[in-house]
């Protein structure tokens, strides 16, 4: 069954119930008003600080956009790009695309003009739907894009001259289901890799992948119709949307929060009655830090209904979860591992019942298989480090228009993830590091995640990233970039003294105090750090000083 059928079912079963709420507390803060409801029969006022729609409105808006696209000749295997910040229009547009049989192509909202052009050409998009934040990035290439693509503007204010208005186009479109036959084997979506090694690759998925991600998420976290899911990460990324799919499957409400400040998160949970929250590591750290410092008082919020906090998208420091459980002892906790190539989270997960195994990414998820292999593709023994491979209904079809890259990571149905991992005696998988991030120093393999987890035990450290730097004698050395918590001080000598507790070869040879850049999905941008702190830059900095 294609996932578009779930939307029809929810509209039929829960039509008048609110399904999506959008919160923009920055606007509330600027205008110094209280949150209130806005009727969204035509939800184009994206400057409102609280908006909501029902399942009926969601479905009708998806149908309107689908019928508009069909009237312009868009159908099966055409591609529709979505370049928008999180908002109430995002998901109805996404499902409108799917209802035509076309392929939805979410774009990263951080793409610059060159990346937008590159991805549009790579995915061969026929339509680009964009929000007001992206007018300046689209305009320089609008003439070139419009040769092959219809440009549709969504948002407040005047529609730019090079585009057509979403609100005007859909106003008179039919709200009836277009009833295009869709099979599980039909192509559904193209997601892009993070592009940390250059321009991103286009990842093609079928409808089967989307549906399995919904089943997998619901199987892992037991969402019911009464649960309320707080969604903070960007919807272009598989993580946010596929976690929401678990609630979508049972007709549960979701809240789209625009902003990551700790007080925003806790107020949204409190005011909207959220029961499930998916966080990224830095957001969880910020919440705990503000509680510890007294900036936030938990007694100011209604949080008793909050039952599950889960984290994904990156290795999770065990020390962080120990801190969290001290503050929120009644929360269930889960770690979710996944890639866009495996339709996001859940191919491996810890499981709420396995809190004693914090530090592991877990075991094979619902409907998934795992194995860890050596460089020859042979399964390694438990305790040995190798490359993690996953297999299941959510594995991508291919890297679109990149046969060579597809062959390198898809072998006999197994997806070779590029992540180095090991299994313990109970079969729980521990992520060691990205294959490309392993540091080889004097012939020894150093795994940055292990060193980072060790350093995070220092109370003064807010965030840390370990990278390899070229060294004429050892080949590479480990360098630790450390971000210090507000109100704390830390010296290189103190860090080095602390590192006496680990093996000599694992100790960072270079300590740098600086901010840690992370992308919108919370992953440390190590290529950025390598570029910033390569040997040449360090020498230049030392000469300047």
Task: Walk me through what this model shows.
With 545 residues, the chain is an alpha/beta fold. It has 3 domains: 4-259, Rossmann fold, CATH 3.40.50; 307-434, Luciferase, Domain 3 (Luciferase, domain 3, Roll); 444-544, 2-Layer Sandwich (GMP Synthetase, Chain A, domain 3). Helix content is 31%, strand content 26%. It has 18 helices and 27 strands. Helix 1 (4-14) packs across helix 3. The radius of gyration is 24 Å and the shape is globular. Residues 33-46 and 535-545 have low confidence and may be disordered.
* Count of DSSP-assigned helices: 18
What is the overall shape?
globular
What structural class should be given to the helix and strand makeup? alpha/beta
Mean pLDDT comes to: 89
CATH topology of the largest domain: Rossmann fold
Specify the CATH homologous superfamily of the largest domain: ANL, N-terminal domain
Give Rg in angstroms: 24 Å
Give the SSE map:
Layout: H1 4-14, E1 18-23, H2 25-31, E2 50-54, H3 55-71, E3 79-83, H4 90-99, E4 103-106, H5 113-123, E5 127-131, H6 135-138, H7 142-146, E6 150-154, E7 164-165, H8 166-171, E8 187-192, E9 202-206, H9 207-221, E10 228-231, H10 238-249, E11 253-257, H11 262-272, E12 276-279, H12 281-293, E13 308-312, H13 318-327, E14 332-339, E15 344-349, E16 363-364, E17 369-373, E18 386-391, E19 398-399, H14 403-409, E20 410-411, E21 414-423, E22 429-434, E23 439-441, E24 444-446, H15 448-455, E25 461-471, E26 475-484, H16 492-498, E27 510-513, H17 526-532, H18 535-544
Helix pairs in contact: 1-3, 3-4, 9-10, 12-13
